[in-house]
Amino acid sequence: MVERWRKETHCFNFREGECTITLKDIAILTDLPIDGDVVCVDSTPPPKVVANMSGWQHFIWTVTGLCPPEKGDHDADGQPPLSKGQVSITWLTAEIRRKHNPEFGGIPLTEESSERDKEIYARIYILGMIGGVFFPKKSNNLISNSWLKIILGSWDDMGNLSWASACLAQLYRSLCNASARAVKEIDGAMFIVQFWAWEHLQWIAPKVDPDKDWGPDHPLRHEAYDCR
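Structure tokens predicted for Aminotransferase-like plant mobile domain-containing protein (228 residues):
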């Protein structure tokens, strides 16, 4: 698919003609919202407000309740938890699981947990979806700290953003960058390319059971289309 991508037109070039992934495709496949404000990421480092923490350390602690060390430790993938304006999602998820895992002396997250704990867990989950699913980097486990500034906002502000258009723009950029001759790796939401190709290119699509019942009682009936 990458070899058939033309960055001049943002289209796949096939013998039958040209076609491309559209905003409607993103909305149907992922159920991300189209309408809303532009997703604008601010990469300016926050100022240092605590003597024993850097600006990013304090900002991450404010959002997640966790303070990543800048030196010494490494996550399960061998990456430092905090490096060059990026935080390791592997380290974050391991720490939050340890915090709520009774085997490590943690307190399980339940309906009776504090609103602060529930909010931290939800924000880290959303951060993982952003950095690990819809806007992944080649490292596959490092997320730009800039996303934290959006995650720290109100739930209404996050819900009122046009995530589908941001995902499509990032996907186009990833395909354009990967189409260069010397490039051997690609980032971005490649699962969208795969599902889109399965839906539109019959010669590579998996066989679908024609008797499959997607009635209202099916557990995936109301999920995003690509889940099915």
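The radius of gyration is 20 Å.
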